[in-house]
Write a structure and sequence with these properties.
Rossmann fold, Rubrerythrin, domain 2, 2 domains, 5-stranded parallel β-sheet, globular
Length: about 230
């Protein structure tokens, strides 16, 4: 029990330091991965119950525990941080769409791996956000069978998610790179940061000595303490 209390006190001290970093940052950018959505019932990849962990063991991936996941405490924490002008931009490797569902403006986020609830016109680029995930698309062309509603376009719509070994959309990656070069505090939450080129973004310019980078795995717990104890 004493060991547990010691660990909790040590964690609280580190969370206070993180809160100070956030409070004093001039351009704060967060990088999120699958780990922030596990408490919403969505499996991650490299965790104990992750998809790739199961494949490595030669067993079937565990099914998701919910049909219609909702944003977690961590997702909502980012909304509050943006509303209070602490957080300038968010870069996500997730395609579950929970950041946008939580209320993050689409001009303040770069979804590097796309969005499972989003279609985009292959001709004019117009984006369509749906209430549910996009199913029934062709896996070779990613065409969904629907068409752009712009009268002068009528282009075919594509699913926007990015699969393994596919390239990320240039527009999203360019925005993420621009924000990463600006930021003086980068926070990695729920991600192992092993996937290129996303893993290179948080550490951009960190060797200059003017930028801090923090990596956190206990997502919901950290933000619960930050807001419950009013560290911000």
């Amino acid at each position: 029990m004493n060991h547990f209390i010691f660990l909790l006190e040590d964690l609280n001290k580190k969370i206070k330091i993180l809160a100070d970093y956030i409070r004093n940052a001039k351009h704060f950018v967060v990088y999120t991965g699958a780990g922030i959505s596990t408490s919403a019932g969505i499996n991650d990849f490299r965790g104990p119950n992750g998809v790739w962990t199961a494949q490595a063991r030669g067993i079937a991936s565990p099914p998701s525990t919910v049909r219609h996941p909702v944003p977690t405490l961590t997702h909502m924490a980012y909304v509050e941080l943006m509303k209070n002008n602490y957080l300038q931009f968010l870069v996500s490797q997730n395609c579950d769409g929970l950041h946008l569902k939580s209320g993050i403006p689409n001009d303040r986020i770069a979804e590097l791996h796309g969005n499972g609830s989003c279609e985009a016109c292959a001709k004019c680029g117009k984006v369509y956000y749906r209430q549910t995930d996009i199913f029934g698309y062709e896996h070779l062309t990613w065409l969904t069978g629907r068409y752009c509603t712009e009268p002068t376009c009528r282009g075919r719509l594509r699913c926007t998610t990015v699969s393994f070994n596919q390239s990320m959309p240039d527009v999203c990656l360019d925005r993420a790179t621009e924000q990463s070069q600006k930021c003086d505090l980068s926070l990695c939450m729920g991600t192992s940061m092993r996937v290129m080129p996303a893993c290179e973004l948080p550490a951009m310019n960190v060797k200059s000595g003017k930028k801090k980078m923090v990596i956190v795995s206990k997502c919901d717990h950290v933000y619960y303490i930050i807001f419950f104890f009013s560290y911000l």
